[in-house]
Specification:
Keywords: Glycoprotein, Glycosidase, Hydrolase, Signal. By secondary structure, the chain is of the alpha/beta class. It has 2 domains: 85 residues, Chitobiase, domain 2 (2-Layer Sandwich); 360 residues, TIM Barrel, CATH 3.20.20. The protein is 32% helix and 16% strand. It has an 8-stranded parallel β-sheet with strand order 10-9-8-15-14-13-12-11. It is elongated, with a radius of gyration of 24 Å. It starts with a strand and ends in an 18-residue tail after the last helix.
């Protein structure tokens, strides 16, 4: 953002004129939307101007204009007269909300969308299903939610999903759904018997085996047909050109559920896979890609990084990096996936469910992610790669997994902590290096959230919303 102070700050502003070059867009926001805008003032005509190429930039500019307005101690309202030329650093700036482990109501989801718009975040990554529950209501396969959700009340109907998508659209936010496969599918089995592989310890299936199946059996044609039909429906329900297909943590189930399953092993050997789990995983993913391309040829597929680490990902896959015991490890992973030509999304150090004493977004000295809060220090392109590699970085997401949050505390846990990621992903790198300088901005932003009716965690230091920062 480039900002210059305008002269004569005491001038009265009577109107704001919004100019959108391309007019209103009847479609949905997409990855390539233009969010740039300019704000300036004519003190002679007492007019403010907001110019944008697309409506999405106008939405961002209106939020910035609202943040120029402040109230003094005498209850007088003022506008900080400035000239602003602004655009995002990255096109993908997201929040992941896990709505499977604990159900989050549509009302709370909309609150989160409002807060995302306040912080210029533009991707709602909706983690809809997981091992614990299946709240997504499929028209083709209603038993998935009827038997896989926590209760009939803890579901998202297709009408509710469309409502969320349209609400997000008005805020310039994309809704990217995630249906995690081939692992994390424990809840699918309740409504689709036979979908998951049976898992065996070395001594055979029985009470001595603690493993519960959580991974698909991709050797059954009926299962592949089901996956094809399921995603055909989902791809036509969600209008975004991107969908997240998961793919994480399958390696923990592959030996017990694939290699130790005599039926699956026999099938693998008859298809020249020997006992190589990666070949079976690649077989499943190759079929999944064909299904997606047949259903929507323009759909882009996002996977968690393990799919790429195992060298089984389709060439056009987008890597979502989440692992790494340290910041340095995660940067090596970003270097690795971009070196192989993949677009990348970064989340490793923005896991909001990792609890730490004190301020989570400030500077810390620890290197292990579980010991650091340091959301503000993270930079998705902070790896030793070429300029061409760094251009493959789409942005990042702050992730809040649902083991320790539900509708009662998810907003307070998410915000304003996610604002650190939001500013790092939107603003120029040089303007966001110093968390000490950022602290007054975050404190004021928290006060804005409270002024708009959102509850937030108590700030470390007292202060006033009417600050001069």
């Amino acid at each position: 953002m480039t900002t210059t102070n305008a002269p004569n700050p005491n001038t009265t502003i009577t109107q704001l004129i919004v100019n959108v070059t391309k007019g209103c867009d009847s479609g949905y926001p997409q990855m390539d939307m233009d969010e740039s805008y300019n704000i300036y003032f004519n003190t002679t005509s007492h007019t403010g101007y907001l110019d944008a190429n697309e409506i999405w930039g106008a939405i961002r500019g209106l939020e910035s204009f609202s943040q120029l307005i402040y109230e003094d101690s005498n209850n007088n309202w003022f506008v900080k007269l400035s000239t602003i030329s602004d655009q995002p650093r990255f096109p993908h700036r997201g929040i992941l909300m896990d709505c499977s482990r604990h159900y989050i109501s549509v009302r709370i989801i909309k609150q989160n969308l409002d807060l995302m718009a306040m912080s210029k975040m533009n991707v709602f990554h909706w983690h809809l299903t997981d091992s614990e529950s299946f709240p997504y209501v499929s028209a083709k396969f209603p038993n998935l939610s009827a038997k896989g959700a926590y209760s009939p009340k803890h579901v998202y109907t297709q009408a509710q999903i469309k409502d969320v998508i349209n609400y997000a659209r008005l805020l310039g936010i994309r809704v990217v759904a995630e249906f995690d496969t081939p692992g994390h599918m424990g809840a699918w089995e309740h409504g689709q018997p036979g979908l998951l592989a049976k898992c065996y310890a070395e001594e055979g299936w029985g009470d001595t085996d603690p493993m519960i199946s959580n991974i698909i059996d991709p050797t059954k044609d009926a299962n592949l047909q089901f996956i094809s039909q399921f995603f055909d429906e989902a791809l036509h329900l969600f209008p975004d050109n991107y969908m997240h297909f998961g793919g994480d943590e399958t390696i923990r189930y592959q030996n017990a559920c694939w290699l130790n399953n005599s039926d699956i092993l026999t099938w693998m050997q008859s298809h020249n896979m020997s006992n190589d789990n990666s070949k079976l995983l690649k077989y499943y993913l190759s079929n999944l890609v064909q299904f997606v391309q047949k259903s929507r040829s323009n759909a882009s597929m996002i996977f968690w990084q393990e799919v790429l680490d195992q060298n089984v990902a389709p060439n056009t896959s987008i890597a979502h990096v989440w692992k790494g015991n340290s910041y340095e490890d995660s940067m090596q992973e970003m270097n690795h996936v971009t070196q192989n030509g993949h677009l990348a999304i970064y989340s490793s150090c923005w896991y909001l469910d990792l609890i730490k004493y004190g301020v989570l977004w400030d500077d810390v000295n620890e290197t292990a992610f579980e010991d650091r809060g340091m959301y503000y220090q993270c930079n998705p392109t902070d790896f030793n790669g070429t300029d061409a590699q760094k251009k493959l970085v789409l942005g990042g997401e702050a992730c809040l997994w649902g083991e320790i949050v539900d509708g009662a505390n998810v907003i307070q846990r998410m915000w304003p902590n996610a604002g650190a990621a939001a500013e790092r992903l939107w603003s120029d790198l040089e303007q966001t290096r110093n968390s000490t300088a950022a602290w007054p901005r975050f404190h004021e932003h928290r006060c804005r959230m409270i002024a708009r009716g959102f509850l937030g965690p108590f700030a470390r230091e007292s202060g006033s919303y009417h600050s001069k920062h």
